[in-house]
Amino acid sequence: MILPIYTYGNPVLRKVAEPIGRDYPNLSELIQNMNDTMVHAEGVGLAAPQIGLSIRLFVIDLAPFKEDDSELSEFKVTMINPEIIEESEEMVAMDEGCLSIPGISESVSRPEKIKVKYLDENFEERVVELDGFRARVVQHEYDHLEGILFTDKINPLRRQLIKSKLTNITKKKVDCKYKIK
Asked: Angle CA(27)–CA(82)–CA(166) in degrees, nearest 5?
C-alpha cells in the first residue's frame, strides 16, 4: 500500500523515534508498505517518521543508481533500531534532497565512512561498515530517527535563502508526484 509522506513542518519529523521489538504489530506489512511508498515516490530511502510513525525503522534501496555504480544496485536494506557506532573524521559534502522536503536540495557535509549496528527484518543483529553514497544515505535516514532534517545541517545563509520554499512546504503549496500529509 502506498502511504502519504509527511512533509516539512509536521511535528512527527522532529521527534526522537522510539525503538521497537519483534512484537511490533504488522511489521512485515509495514516494511513492504514503506518500500512500495519509497519506490512510488522515486526515493532511495524512507524512515518511519516520514510516514507518521515515530519508531526506529528505515528502508533503503539504491537500485535506481545501478547505471552509475553497479555495486549500489545491490544495496537494499531494512534497518531496525540502528545505531551509528563509528564515524570517520573525513567529511564529504554532497547535494541531498528528501521526500519530506520536496523540491529542495542543498549541499550537506557528512562523515565519509561509518559503522552501523542494527537489526534486520528478521531481528538478526548486523554490523556493517559503509562509505561513500551508502554511508550518506544511511546517515540521512538515521537523522530522521533523531528528529533531524538535512536542512538543519546546511549553512545558515543557505537556510535563510530557502526559508520561503520551506514555508510553502509547510502550507502544502508544493507540487509532488506522491501523496503528502
From this structure: 90
